[in-house]
Design brief:
about 350 residues, alpha/beta, Rossmann fold, GMP Synthetase, Chain A, domain 3, 13-stranded mixed β-sheet, 9 helices, about 25% helix, about 30% strand
Length: about 350
């Protein structure tokens, strides 16, 4: 396992040894701005004598926690991405995600071990806006991509993670020259283990596994991930999928979000995809108790203005009878994780505890 490639550059600076890189990392920790202290801390952690790293989970589906990952597995994950996207040494890449979490850490590991020319930008909504350089590769969350559409020509290959890519954003990405890919993964799988091309001739609604990764399902049709190169145990998820083959699947939604209405299971994510073309701003599909149906589907919109069902009557005609929201709630400000995901359960709890 090669911890440091001799060609690695950080903001244009080369390093003659691991000790030279540690000096720069210590400087970032002590005097860095924005995400630079976190970058410095992780570089020092990657270069230390321990055989593991510590990583925080995002907390989108529960309480955030810290887990440990073997450096050998982290290296294997980095190599899988490098090989899959053909990102050889001297690749010019941009880091614009927080290095507090796995996605940002993995950009650093890929760069350090493959000998990339890595540049740092603040993990903000428009990371490309003030940059004049072009890049071979970067990773963003959907929120950043949405606000960077006019600047994506500066990037050859882009991977999107950390949340679902809406139908509207996917449509907009058909117009860019950048090769764009949605990714599927989590902290426990050391970032992505499956990829879906969003635009170009290979565009697909199906996620395909990276080499060495096999999929199966449990009794609830939730995805199980067999990835011995990055995890010694089978990773069980709460993601309901349509399994196409042992190496491909279509994402349907999270089992803990499923609404059982009148005996029919409705996946909120599927309904959200249908509505995303027509509703501006942030929203999600949830449920509340109903005497007749058990649970009824509701629409929650982040807005200061009240909304009525009548305003959406035409739009809801595109939905099945069970998918149609029976009520609309507006919330001035949703609750988000540090990585920008909506905390659905907490929003609903706050809404109904009023």
């Amino acid at each position: 396992m090669k911890v440091l490639h001799s060609n690695f550059k950080l903001n244009g600076e080369s390093f003659s040894s691991a000790e030279a890189l540690k000096e720069v990392a210590n400087h970032l920790v002590e005097k860095g701005n924005n995400d630079e202290p976190a970058i410095g801390k992780f570089i020092l952690e990657w270069l230390d004598k321990n055989d593991y790293i510590a990583v925080k989970t995002s907390g989108s589906t529960g309480i955030p926690k810290t887990i440990t990952l073997k450096k050998e597995h982290v290296f294997n994950s980095a190599q899988a991405t490098i090989n899959y996207f053909d990102l050889k040494e001297n690749t010019k890449a941009l880091l614009c995600l927080s290095s507090e979490y796995i996605a940002g850490k993995m950009m650093l590991v890929r760069a350090i071990t493959a000998g990339w020319d890595l540049h740092i930008a603040a993990a903000e909504k428009k990371p490309l806006e003030s940059l004049e350089s072009n890049f071979d590769f970067t990773a963003m969350v959907p929120y950043q991509v949405f606000h960077s559409l006019t600047d994506l020509h500066k990037v050859k290959k882009l991977i999107i993670g950390g949340g679902a890519v809406s139908s509207t954003l996917e449509q907009q990405l058909q117009q860019v020259s950048t090769k764009v890919f949605a990714t599927y993964g989590m902290t426990e799988t050391i970032s992505h283990i499956a990829v879906r091309p969003i635009n170009g001739a290979e565009k697909s609604g199906i996620f395909s596994s990276l080499p060495g990764v096999i999929f199966s399902q449990d009794q609830n049709n939730c995805l199980q991930i067999h990835a011995p190169e990055v995890s010694e145990e089978i990773v069980a998820t709460n993601d309901v999928v349509a399994l196409i083959s042992p190496t491909s699947f279509k994402f349907l939604g999270r089992i803990d979000n499923v609404v059982n209405t009148g005996g029919v299971k409705v996946h909120p994510e599927t309904v959200e995809e249908k509505l995303s073309h027509h509703i501006a701003g942030t929203f999600f599909i949830g449920s509340e108790k109903d005497d007749a149906l058990g649970e009824k589907v509701i629409l929650i919109i982040e807005s200061e203005e009240m909304q009525s069902l009548e305003n959406y009557s035409e739009l809801f005609k595109t939905l099945s009878a069970y998918e149609k929201p029976k009520k609309i709630y507006t919330v001035p400000q949703f609750i988000y994780t540090e990585t920008g995901k909506v905390k659905r359960a907490e929003v609903l709890k706050k809404l109904f505890n009023k």
